[in-house]
Amino acid sequence: MIIGGLNKCSLIDYPGKIGAVVFTYGCNLTCPYCHNAGLVTDGGPEDRYDTDEVLDFLKSRVGRLDAVVVSGGEPCLHNDLAEFLVQVKAMGYLVKLDTNGSRPTMLKSLLEQKLVDYVAMDIKGDPAAYVPHLSKRSFEAEIRESVSAILTSGIPHEFRTTCTSPFIDEAVLETITRMIEGAELYALQEFNPKHTLNPGFFQEHEGISPDLLERFKVVAEGKVRRCVLRTT
């Protein structure tokens, strides 16, 4: 597993817990608003952490941290992810997985092995419209399969959408919320134009106003158990 980043202490990434965040390298999406460009671009991360080094750090924090969050990039691209999580779980940590839902087979395997205690899945827009700006090929079937797996897993979860044009409008929100109906939590995230993967893209497209975000929240609240706005 290629680890390109490590946040040794976070109070916000695992709800209600103190955790470390492990960032894996590599992603199969090309979201222009991505803030982890160094984990997505070709050539590998500028800094690379040895897996054993990260595990040793986590061992040294047992009793001081509650959880480990595995984010990216896209963690489910790494075939040895389960092996890593087995070792993390053996230390007694809760595990949260951040995923884009593009590899449902891996996701379902992790859930079945009880290696994940909380899942956060990003839904970038209408799953049928990821190409060409968000991905090079369609992941519609995979995204829907991952949503279904999460909703039926019985474990705590959330879905998240970064709200920016041209990807999100009220019709798209209707599509997404129908797909995730009954979800425990849906977070609508305000777009932050700083340090994005493709800054030039947003010379033509811009974020969504706070008033419109509130309207989106109203749309979502009728379909999910709880909807929150996360602003920058």
UniProtKB/TrEMBL annotation:
It comes from the Bacteria. NCBIfam families: NrdG2 (TIGR02495). The keyword Iron applies. Its cofactor is [4Fe-4S] cluster. This is Anaerobic ribonucleoside-triphosphate reductase activating protein. Residues 13-232 form the Radical SAM core domain. Signal peptide: none annotated. The keyword Iron-sulfur applies. Keywords: Iron, Iron-sulfur, Metal-binding, S-adenosyl-L-methionine. Coiled coil: none annotated. SUPFAM superfamilies: Radical SAM enzymes (SSF102114). Pfam families: Radical_SAM.
